[in-house]
Amino acid sequence: MRQIPSKIFYLLVPVLAVGVFLIDSFFRIIEHFDFNINLSFLALSLQNVRIIIVIALVAAWVIIVRRRFEISELELSQKLWRFSLLLFVNYAIAYLLKDIILADYLIGDIDRQKTVLEALVHEFYKNIVGLMTIVTLIPILFVLRDLIFYRQRRTTRLYFNLFLGMLLISTIWVSYTGETLDFLSPFADLPNAGSTMNIILVWSSMIVILLLAFRNDWITYLPRKQKFIYFGIGVIVYLMIIFLRDDIYEGYLGNSTVAVGYLQEYSFAVYNFAIFVWLLLLIYATFSMVTLLMHLPTAKAVDRKLKELTSLYDFARLLNTELNAEKLPQLITQLTSKVLESQSTWYMEYRNPVAPNMKLISHINLTQQQILDNPFEELNGLNQQLLDEKKPILINDISQNRSLRHLLEWKKDARTLIAAPLFSSRDQIMGVVYAAKPQPFGFDIDDLSLLEGFANQSAMALENAQLWNKSLEKERMEQELKIARDVQLKLVPQSMPLITGFELESFFLTAYEVGGDYYDFIEFGDEQTGVVIGDVSGKGTSAAFYMAEFKGVIQTLSQTLNSPKELICHANRIFYSSIERKSFVTAVVGKLIPEKKIFQFVRAGHTPILHCSPKNKTVQYLQPPGLGIGLDKGPVFEKIIAQESITLDHGDFLILSTDGLMEARNASGDEYGEERLQALISNCHTYSAAGTKDRILTDVMDFIGETPLHDDLTFIVIKFGQGIPEIDTPAPPDKTKKQEKVAK
After folding, report:
1. What is the pLDDT of residue 645?
2. In what order do the strands lie in the sheet with 502-509?
3. Overall fold of domain 492-743
4. Going by CATH, does the domain composed of 303-469 fall within 3.30.450.40?
5. Does 36 score more than 70 pLDDT?
6. Please, what is the average pLDDT of the chain?
7. 397-441 pLDDT per residue, tens
8. What is the DSSP string of 334-398?
9. pLDDT at position 590 over 90
């Protein structure tokens, strides 16, 4: 449902107000001329219309106040000024019209017959009083509600809703019975004072209003200056509230037999609303003035606490927005000096845990000589006391402190000293902040508490900045590792070579971002295809670096050499001079000779080759002697290394792998092992190279489950002979992707 535009309500309010005035004027004219016509039916109809118009007028103004006045968005001081202004306008306009402009028409013998002009002036003033009551008291009630709800308790809204409920019930009661509630003398000798309903409504309302009157917590948080200002203005406002009832709401017209107030004559419902709100204003203002008067002597102390809280908040906000660890010490020094109003401030940072000392990082108002002769660099004396006690220290007069009197030689204008240590979340000392003043007792106990809060915030900010810098460094390293991983993946073959009589498949997965496993296909000097698989000791970037270097050496040497042994021996001599003594490389270098059905290879300390021969029904590991590359300069290596050749039959398999395959572990810590692989391969003679690779990978992944890889996983499957029927198992992409995710 679309919202009715506010402009309509702005137009509706004056139209409705004029409508009420015209109806009242009509009744006054009929009464004055006393026509001999029976107008009772018309009068009753107009009276009902008038009631509806008044209700519509109140509703329209409530909507305007809620939409346009935005009272809840105002600051506390703005609400108080708005409250005072509305009350003054209510009082001033009605009183001004009554005692100055309309005095000649409203003052006189109440028993004499009024002229038509006087009667119309009477109706005009009555309508002005009613309209001003509606226009001012409704926003005043909204302001009062916000004051009552300031830091509201759980029952505050309940009490205020009870007040609104009592207001509604009493308004209906008053409109129905024509009685009025007398809050000042409910048991007086009045026609309506003793009715049971009257007494219940009066005392119930009084109890609820008294409960609301205690909700004036906003006074506590006023600054000292504003408390004095509002107390002075509050006296005037309080007097206006007191006289508002008698001068405006109970302002009497009448004749010789009955006295009726202007507002009562305008509307019993509006009058009841006005008296209810007036009583709430009177009691709430009474309690507020008493509370304000009691707070005046302690206003300065409260101001100090508010300033400390504000300073601590601003301090924390500024520190938390600065993530540069190099700029933070200077910011800490500046903010501490500003809040404590100290003459000199400096920050000492704890630097060396081996030979504990402190270093001046930032300062305010220290000379160059004082910086050079700083007596706070050693972790002793006052620094040691701060470290031991883990709380701030206040020296009221340095000249009276024997252990610190020497500081006057360093800084003659320092008489009061305050210091606080900064500890990390792991309870490690980070530094100490100092502040000094030239007069004795320049700081007090509140400054000590404030500095302690500042020190805690500073330590947190410094620690956050350090963590932020570490996270940035970690992110940078992770990005570099990602780039290194991409480069490493490009170093391994992107496709398998086509060799007559052979099928080749491979799998390569690093346990970390980068690793030391390596495999490649090369071409010897006699144009025969070779295969290389290796593993660099260690993990991470250093292993990946050596792997890339090893690839370059092998690729370069293979172009001029014809045998695997020559190639590995030359590579060892080159690699020995560049690799660290704690590192080495294991490798298998093989050569495929299709026309002779021969696989020629050497093993430089690497994992044995698994050979599966369906014809001979054997599965065995080939492990000729060899030594890791880089462990020996050359003679010993070349003496130990042995080259072997095996003749392959149709359907034979060779599995070349790194130790990551055999040492893959499950959740229980058990290794996959050579026997498990040997048993698996014994049933693979009917599979192609791709099918065998998938079977190995599936079996390994099923074995380790969700356990992350602790080493790189690399293996090559070589099958000799083509045209054999193939029974391929489906590839396990899900498990591979899952393991890659686990490995990362």
Report:
1. 93
2. 502-509, 713-720, 653-657, 609-613, 618-622
3. Phosphatase 2c; domain 1 (3.60.40)
4. yes
5. no
6. 81
7. 888 888 888 888 898 888 899 999 998 888 888 889 999 999 988
8. HHHHHHHT-SEEEEEEE--SSS-BEEEEEEES--HHHHHT-TTSBSSTHHHHHHHH-S-EEES-G
9. yes
